[in-house]
Structure formats: structure tokens, C-alpha cells
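task queued by scheduler; priority normal; single chain, no ligands, no partner chains; default sampling; output format set to C-alpha cells
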Amino acid sequence: MIQPAFLSTLQVAKLPGGQWRLLAPLRYQSTVLGAHLEVPTGFLTDLASVPRLPLAFLLAGDSAHEAAVVHDHLYQVRRCTRAQADAVLAEAMAVTGEPAWRRWLMWSAVRTGGWWAWRTGPRRYSRLLNYQIQDRRVEPREQA
């Protein structure tokens, strides 16, 4: 059995409009799926979609970026079921050391409210593949 682990670091550039573009592939091996996953260079993500409400953002904002990218990719390419994608999110958050309470909070949020993102994932992915950067100024950011 493979052990869950990130096999590369998250390297992203900030784009206008709250999106981020991967500058290098993000590789992850998942016990939940029993597979190695690769999010390709150029993939667009909003990282973790946490409401900007003060308490919600305080508890879960600006965290679990690597796990969120893998989760976004699974929702968009539909390589597994929604329940499996959400389980991979929790698994990947554990790998990066997120505390159990935050893993539960974020997993519960996607199980409760992620149906819309799951339903529209392939359409959003198709749109993002055709996304053209109007403002070429990007800020590289590597996640530790």
C-alpha cells in the first residue's frame, strides 16, 4: 500500500481576479485512490474557496493550499467520485500537517456545499483551459 505524500512542492503565480496558475506540476500519491496524481503546469485554481466572512476565513482561510489544488483538480477532471475527492482533500491536509479540527471543518464544508462545484467542475475546467491572461504580470509564490 502506498503512503499518502506530496512528491513535489506547490509553485504558483497569482493572476488577476483571485486565480492562481501552477508553474510546475504538483504530484501527490493518495492512499484513498491508490494512485499517483499529477496536477499539470498551467492548471488554474482559486486555492481553498473559503468564504471571506471573518470567522470562516480566520478558521480556514489561507491554509491547505496543496490539498486544495489537488481537490480542485479532482473536481474538474472527475477522475473519481465526489466522496473520494473530498476524502483525498482530508488525506492531503493531514499530510501537510493541518490540525484535525481544520481538516474536519474543511471536509464538512465541501461535503455540505461542494455539490455545485462538483456539478459544474468539467464545464469550469473547459473554460479555464481556454483562459487567456490579459495582464501578464504575475507574482511567483512557492509554498513551503
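post-processing summary
- The chain has a mean pLDDT of 79.
- The longest strand covers residues 26-30.
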